[in-house]
Amino acid sequence: MFDLPDSWVWDFWLADDGERYHLFFLYASRALHDPDRRHLRASIGHAVSDDLVSWTRVADALVRADAPAFDETATWTGSVVRGDDGLWYLFYTGVRFEDGRNVQRLGYATSTDLMTWHRAPDNPVVESDPRWYELAGNSPWNEETRRDPWVFRDPDGDGWHLLVTARATEGESLTRGVVGHAVSPDLRSWRVLPPLSEPVENGFGQLEVMQVEEIDGRPVLLFVCLPPQASERRRAQYPRGAIWAAPADSLTGPYRIDEAYPLADDDLYVGRLLRRRDDGAWLFFAFRHMDADGELVGGVTDPMPVASQGDRLVVQRP
User: Fold this and answer.
1) Looking at the domain covering 7-315, what would its CATH class be?
2) Which pLDDT value is given to residue 137?
3) pLDDT tens across 47-104, in order?
4) Bridge partners of 180?
5) Domain map of the chain by residue range?
6) Could you give the 3-state DSSP secondary structure of residue 46?
7) What is the overall mean pLDDT for the chain?
8) Which of 32, 99, 128, 265 is deepest in the core (most CB within 10 A)?
9) Residue 312 C-alpha from the chain's centroid
């Protein structure tokens, strides 16, 4: 398990450089006292491991930028990939308040070694397109939801896909969560496209921290949504569902959000899958979310095996 005694640790993502595993995570000082204040103090920390169990903290990856900047308030969740140019790319969410509203945009930083990161000069590179996505000015959430990028190579071509937490422009508020989409030929220039899912009656207000993988030949989309942000119908069926898996027709969708099923209750949050290098086994990680009193715990779990049972994934929790 990875934890910090002086800070809350929550959203995270993983990378494998072929020799070591890398854990990137959001953290904020416990000196804030109130864990709800952590979001606007978030920085991106970094740790490394040889075995996915024992982690060594190294220098932070990113902190918020000096104003004026799209990420002047906080740096939020992202993902890391290696480009065809040999550079590592860290895509992340930048937060800035505009007219009292939380506006989220996506940027990236690059590194030659995963240790020292430099922001791209052309940030931000992905913003909401009002043709398909809800903007801050017309959102009952008082924010412009454009966060948690998951970037992966096109399985059928030479380009790249980016999935992002987003909201549609129509529908009941707690069903508007969709899989936002953008594409790029080179990881630097991005074109925003329509979402890869639709709002559904038993859906979600938001699909946070997505990841898509193919497990035992079946594409599956992981995302998270706590019960208060899910539709009434979804809450009635799964009153404690928090980490979700949805089947997909392919890695690039469409994603069948109406068929989503829970992988874990709200004691865990942010489910991540990683394929272990030595044996190819798929492992599941999460951060410890709520204790029995409903208080934030924090810290990333040890890896847990996942298995297919019928057409579903099952996490084998200790």
Assistant:
1) mainly beta
2) 79
3) 999 999 999 999 999 999 999 999 999 999 999 999 999 999 999 999 999 999 999 9
4) 164
5) 7-315
6) strand
7) 96
8) 128
9) 21
Cα distance between residue 39 and residue 306, in whole Å: 30
Question: pLDDT over 90 for what percent of the chain?
Answer: 94
| Lookup: tokens for 291 | 């204790």
What b/e readout covers 143-176, taking b as 16+ CB neighbours within 10 angstroms? bbbbbbbbbbbeeeeeebbbbbbbbbeebeebbb
* CB-CB neighbours of 251 under 10 Å: 19
End-to-end distance of the chain based on CA atoms, in angstroms?
13
The C-alpha angle with vertex 37 and arms to 90 and 116, in degrees rounded to 5, equals 25
What sign does the dihedral 94-284-8-289 (CA atoms) show? Answer: positive
SS3 259: helix
Rg of the chain (C-alpha set): 18
Mean pLDDT of 283-298: 95
Residues facing 283 on adjacent strands? 274, 305
Count of other CB atoms within 10 angstroms of residue 101? 15
Separation CA 182–CA 160 (nearest Å): 9
Render pLDDT for 215-261 as a digit per residue (tens, 0 to 9). Answer: 999 999 999 999 999 999 999 999 999 999 999 999 999 999 999 99
